[in-house]
Specification:
Blueprint (H helix, E strand, L loop, with lengths): L1 E12 L4 E9 L2 E5 L4 E12 L2 H13 L3 E4 L2 E4 L15 E10 L3 E9 L2 E4 L5 E7 L2 E6 L3 E7 L2 E6 L3 E7 L2 E6 L3 E7 L2 E6 L3 E7 L2 E4 L7 E8 L2 E5 L5 E9 L2 E3 L6 E3 L2 E8 L6 E8 L2 E5 L1
Parallel strand pairs: 2-6, 2-8, 3-7, 3-9, 8-10, 9-11, 10-12, 11-13, 12-14, 13-15, 14-16, 15-17, 16-18, 17-19, 18-20, 19-21, 20-26, 21-27, 22-26, 23-27
Antiparallel strand pairs: 1-4, 4-7, 5-6, 22-25, 24-25
Length: about 290
């Protein structure tokens, strides 16, 4: 197969609020905050075809007429049907690395078979899906839904709900205001500075959480195999329900777990008149609550 590289840049005047959809079979996607009413799309790409002449012709077509479709307040980037190309790097195909600046009032949906994604500084909501690759999302006002078959996911400074699902990889969450849900098959989850409820479920991996416990919050942390470590303010107030089927439970809050048939269990109240609930269940691993 012949391979030809190319690039394009295109700037559009768009309606706001904008809905933006970006897809690539193999390649990176970056979407960041830009000017109000303006969408700027730049890309580096590689075309694969049966001959060099065919690949060069396809590259010229893409440069002259980039894969951008505008339908009212919806803009789709990355559709290759009009070129007769596959988005997967097999046979007659094209793969893209996209760099996009969008108006602040933009909701984004990005998807890639293989490649990294980075979305920042937009109103949202944001949906990001990758078969294989890392996802980084930050400074978003609306809901986040991120998922990767294999790769790490990082989310920071989000004012609404966050939902993350990863088959194999680590999850890092920080400065979230809304409810958080993270499900991981194999990998670690690190959480810092929560503003609401959280549910974490891991097949194999560790949970590390450092945050104040908001009044009325419900934290549910579960792992099949791995340790759970929580660092909490010493003045925290919460109801604790911790279970380690095969492991130890340690706390800095003056609490002693009970033991039956090797299983450790701790059901106690921390602080006066708590309204928050912290539930931790680990099948094989230790639980530690550190006070700071």
């Amino acid at each position: 197969m012949a391979r030809i590289e190319g690039r394009f840049e295109k700037e559009l005047e768009v309606r706001t609020p904008l809905r933006l959809e970006v897809e690539t079979g193999s390649g990176d996607i970056e979407v960041q905050r830009g000017e109000d009413g303006r969408l700027k799309v730049s890309a580096e790409f590689e075309v694969r075809a049966g001959s060099r002449e065919e690949a060069e012709e396809l590259a010229r077509r893409i440069e002259d007429d980039p894969p951008i479709v505008v339908e009212g307040d919806l803009v789709r980037v990355g559709e290759l049907g009009k070129y007769g190309l596959s988005p997967q790097p097999l046979g007659r195909s094209a793969v893209f690395d996209f760099s996009i600046s969008a108006p602040p009032e933009t909701g984004v949906q990005v998807s890639s078979g293989s490649g990294d994604q980075h979305v920042s500084g937009l109103k949202g909501p944001v949906t990001a899906k990758a078969g294989s690759g890392d996802i980084q999302i930050e400074d978003i006002e609306a809901d986040i839904d991120a998922g990767a078959g294999s790769g790490d996911v990082s989310v920071a400074r989000v004012r609404s709900s966050v939902t993350v699902g990863v088959g194999r990889g680590d999850v890092d969450l920080s400065e979230t205001s809304g409810p958080v849900s993270a499900k991981v098959g194999s990998g670690d989850v690190a959480v810092k500075d929560l503003g609401g409820n959280i549910q974490v479920s891991i097949g194999r991996g560790d949970i590390a959480l450092e945050s104040p416990v908001p009044d009325g919050a419900e934290w549910v942390l579960q792992a099949g195999s791995g340790d759970a470590s929580l660092v909490l303010p010493r003045e925290s107030r919460f109801k604790l329900n911790a279970v380690s089927i095969s492991g130890e439970i340690e706390t800095d809050f003056g609490l002693d777990p009970s033991e039956r048939n090797g299983m450790k269990k701790l059901e106690e109240q921390v602080g006066a008149d708590p309204t928050a609930v912290v539930s931790i269940k680990i099948a094989h691993g230790d639980i530690k609550l550190e006070a700071r």
